[in-house]
Specification:
By secondary structure, the protein is mainly alpha-helical. The protein has a single domain, classed as Ferritin, CATH 1.20.1260.10. It contains five helices and no strands.
Length: 166
């Protein structure tokens, strides 16, 4: 009987360590998701200001609306798993914004569409991975994934239209 206790303790420690590692991964994901949502809202606002085509301006409005709503859900998920929400985009996202802010008109449209395709491809992959988890971050990823996939399709269509119209 006593030989089982160390084995059970070891199994429990292993499970606890695995759960803590998953928690850390979920916390990192939700932090990145919130930063990403802030960045997408800002890029959407910039698209409405600096974009030339009506399609770019309309997509910018979609980003503001959808990522603003997603951020509310992400912040709730963060709170439920004990993460302090970031208050804005990360340094790389700010640098991307600053670079895009120097452009306008057709040059902006082209770079914006390209950036959105790359960004949403990466996001979809990260969210698909996270959506397999059963915690609050996973549930958030699962509920947001269809919107990100729609954004990816829209940005790819936009990029094709802008390339064809040159």
């Amino acid at each position: 009987m006593h030989t089982r206790i160390p084995a059970l303790a070891a199994a429990f420690a292993l499970l606890t360590t695995a759960a803590m590692a998953q928690d850390k991964a979920s916390q990192k994901f939700i932090t990145k998701a919130i930063e990403g949502n802030f960045a997408e809202v800002q890029m959407g606002q910039l698209a409405q200001q600096n974009g030339q085509s009506q399609e770019v301006k309309a997509f910018g409005q979609t980003l503001v609306t959808d990522h603003g709503a997603a951020n509310t859900k992400a912040q709730q998920a963060a709170q439920s798993i004990g993460v302090t929400s970031p208050t804005g985009p990360n340094a790389k996202q700010k640098a991307d914004y600053d670079k895009m802010a120097k452009l306008n008109g057709a040059a902006f449209d082209k770079e914006f569409a390209k950036h959105m395709v790359v960004d949403h491809k990466k996001d979809v992959a990260e969210y698909q991975k996270e959506a397999k988890k059963q915690d609050a971050a996973g549930q958030y990823a699962q509920s947001t994934l269809p919107t990100l996939q729609k954004h990816l399709q829209s940005s790819q269509t936009l990029q094709k239209q802008l390339t064809a119209s040159r």
